[in-house]
Amino acid sequence: MNESEGATENPTTERASAPANAEVTILSPGDGDSVTSPVTVEFGLEGMEVAKAGTDKENSGHHHLLVDVDTLPPMDAPLPSTDQVIHFGGGQTSTELELEPGEHTLQLLLGDYMHVPHQPPVMSEKITITVE
After folding, report:
1. Could you tell me the pTM of the whole model?
2. What domains lie within the chain, and their CATH numbers?
3. CA distances (Å), 120 to each of 7, 72, 86, 110, in order?
């Protein structure tokens, strides 16, 4: 066995595969809802399991919530951790968000154990909510 066998030179080039039936959804709030802050956001996942970041298990991942994101981050690299890309590496399936009054968009994106989106990406529809 040589030194490079089993090692990954660039972990961003190999993406975990996702089953064709995998689906992530925002269970609440609903698209078009008017809400008050803090906003409780509930995540749903079908066809895969939620696992904590760092858990290298087939057909699993953890949630990332994209808040007011116009351009998706690269799908072949670990997702950044910002105010707009919120990581739930502990395996959480809901959160409370403090949002300013006005219109906001929310979208879920599943990441593998290294925070890299799956192939194909397991991503919810983008919803729009109004915070009063």
Report:
1. 0.89
2. 23-131 (2.60.40.10)
3. 23, 14, 20, 10
